[in-house]
Design goal:
The protein has a two-stranded antiparallel sheet with strand order 1-2. The chain is mainly alpha-helical. β1 and β2 form a beta hairpin. About 75% of the residues lie in helices and about 5% in strands. The chain is built from 11 helices and 2 strands, in the order αααββαααααααα. Mean pLDDT is about 85; it is low at about 1-5. The radius of gyration is 19 Å and the shape is elongated. The protein starts with a helix and ends with a helix.
């Protein structure tokens, strides 16, 4: 495979992944044809075919002869098995992850406040500034949002929490991205400012309460989006 074809196939791969992340192509949705992708991205059909084959091998896409190419019906179990950085979860699975995060994140923040260093709190402050500065860029914002929670997980000094964070990393990154695309950045900026305030004051109870309120707020907003 030439370097040119490799680069072109990566463009197609990234384009399809982005459409799935944005919820444009959801589970069991038929994606564009090779001709349409080739024309839109100005790449060869060979490059398109290579990208589709790669995603099919990852159980993200499936080709049905005589019908077209579809997004697989991906469940939480599928993501755990493949560790793919793609969100093609059903709305029910998405909300189930959020419910899990209520307990996980609130427990993490309590451990973090009891065990973190001043330097780690400064890291959170810098990361929050990054979130604010990225409010017009959803791509950058969701990464900063995820990193805020990842810093907290690392600061718990709990090896099991760290292992869970690493295992679920791709799923959580993709979920932060989906949240950003669904509800924008205002909710995250507002809520994380309050959470950071109580972390800096080392108020375990209020920080945990506001983390729970933040996640419940997301569940509420996303649930309304799902109903529309």
């Amino acid at each position: 495979m030439s370097a040119q074809n490799l680069k072109a196939s990566d463009i197609v791969y990234d384009f399809i992944v982005e459409k799935i992340n944005q919820g444009v192509w959801t589970s069991n949705t038929k994606i564009w044809t090779e001709t349409e992708l080739s024309k839109e991205l100005q790449v060869s059909r060979v490059a398109v075919r290579e990208a589709v084959q790669k995603l099919s091998a990852m159980s993200i896409l499936r080709k049905i002869q005589g019908s077209g190419t579809y997004v697989e019906d991906i469940s939480i179990n599928t993501l755990a098995e493949n560790l793919t950085p793609i969100v093609a979860l059903s709305d029910e699975d998405f909300l189930s992850i959020m419910e899990f995060r209520i307990h996980f994140e609130c427990g993490n923040i309590s451990l973090f406040i009891n065990r973190c260093t001043d330097d780690e709190i400064r890291q959170l402050e810098k990361n929050y500034i990054r979130m604010v500065e990225s409010k017009e860029s959803l791509e950058e914002f969701h990464k900063a949002d995820y990193e805020f929670h990842n810093i907290i997980a690392g600061g718990t000094r709990n090896s099991f929490v760290s292992q869970i964070s690493q295992l679920c990393g791709n799923v959580l990154i993709a979920q932060h991205k989906r949240i950003s695309y669904s509800i924008g950045t205002a909710v995250g900026i507002e809520d994380h400012a309050v959470i950071l305030k109580y972390i800096k004051e080392r108020d375990e109870q209020l920080a945990s309460i506001h983390m729970q309120r933040h996640i419940n707020r997301i569940i509420s907003v996303v649930s309304q989006v799902v109903k529309k």
